[in-house]
Design brief:
The chain is an alpha+beta fold. The protein contains 12 helices and 12 strands.
Length: 353
């Protein structure tokens, strides 16, 4: 949510029958004096499935306590609230935005945040505290490898085995994981060491290592702690694979796009321009631009670069079956007054109607 809202700090609270759960992104210290105010805000949304998103006064002590001090330059913050599943309510405060939240942005952003939250919340609740690492690895969509700081390989999933067999980005050298060159191998070793030191206080895939800077085969690895408590000294290495067709399908499922709209999103994710998209789909350039405006309104975005942000936000590392069961469908119609820069090709094999 912080990235989607263009903020560097964010406070999120989940209020349910089991109590209050809080998460902070940024450097703000925990301040229990805000709990009453947060719960009061949450109660406004418990009666029905309502959602709100609005700017708030950045100078209030309530905001500073939740997300930290305001930067020296003038900046802005935003508060949101919506009802979740199982009679739970989410409240979040985010900042610091370089520009205020425009009134035209609010409906789309409020519409966008909810399905992303529901997908993440459902996945988090389904992940057990203790799992067999090999079974867990096989559920991951992307190539994944578990290794220690010495780069000894401890476990690999199906995608990881295929990646290693190609010997392009990663390979096995004397039983150890290696990159395409010595500098990549050393970067992997250093990143794993950093993750193992921070694993007690930080979760998730929090370190990025470039594997290839080639324009034709740009690739990177995300490295984080293994999500089991009994695998100390080991790190998880995931290599994301860009799939424009699957990405368009996930965005379409999350936001209720129809098939025609999904095909255009896939081509945007392949960097085709409106003229080329129209030629391929037998549509005029003007029709493609009209479709794009409608899609952007449904997705709650104002710039076409945000298609790629939504691509990453809707890509769970888990298998498609679990992802599609947890991402909520939502849809709306309308027009967008302003069009972002278009510059966007696909391998979608389905023929037009």
């Amino acid at each position: 949510m912080a990235e989607l809202l263009g903020c560097r700090s964010c406070y999120v609270a989940l209020i349910s029958s089991s109590g209050l759960e809080e998460v902070r992104i940024g450097d703000a210290p925990t301040d229990p004096s805000c709990t009453t105010m947060v719960e009061r805000i949450a109660r406004k949304g418990i009666a029905e499935d309502v959602a709100s998103l609005e700017p708030i006064n950045s100078r209030t002590s309530f905001v500073r306590k939740l997300i930290g001090a305001q930067p020296p330059v003038k900046s802005h913050s935003v508060i949101g609230r919506f009802a979740s599943d199982e009679r739970a309510t989410v409240v979040f405060v985010a900042g610091w935005r370089p520009a205020p939240l425009a009134a035209a942005e609010i409906p789309g952003l409020a519409h966008t945040v909810r399905p992303l939250w529901k997908a993440a919340y459902s996945l988090a609740r389904q992940t057990p505290a203790r799992v067999d690492p090999q079974l867990w690895l096989e559920e991951l969509t992307f190539p994944a490898i578990v290794a220690d700081q010495g780069l000894h390989i401890c476990a690999v999933n199906r995608g990881g085995r295929a990646l290693l067999a190609k010997r392009e980005l990663l390979r096995i050298d004397g039983g150890r994981l290696a990159g395409s060159c010595g500098s990549v191998t050393e970067s992997l070793r250093e990143a794993i060491g950093k993750v193992l030191i921070e694993s007690g206080t930080h979760g998730g895939l929090n370190t990025t290592v470039p594997l290839s800077m080639d324009r034709q085969q740009f690739a990177f690895a995300k490295i984080g702690a293994v999500p089991t408590h009994d695998k100390l000294g080991q790190a998880l290495i995931v290599v994301p694979q860009f799939d424009d067709v699957q990405g368009a399908h996930c965005i379409g499922s999350a936001f209720g796009l129809n098939w025609a709209e999904e095909r255009i999103v896939a081509r945007i994710l392949q960097f085709q321009c409106p003229r080329d998209i129209g030629a391929e789909l037998r549509l005029t350039e003007a029709t493609v631009r009209t479709y794009t405006k409608r899609i952007m309104l449904k997705l709650g975005i104002n710039r076409q670069s945000e298609f790629f942000l939504l691509y990453h936000l809707t890509q769970s590392p888990f298998g498609a079956g679990r992802r599609e069961n947890t991402v909520s469908r939502s849809a709306s119609d309308g027009r967008l007054d302003e069009e972002g820069p278009m510059g966007l090709r696909t391998a979608d094999k389905r023929s037009p109607d």
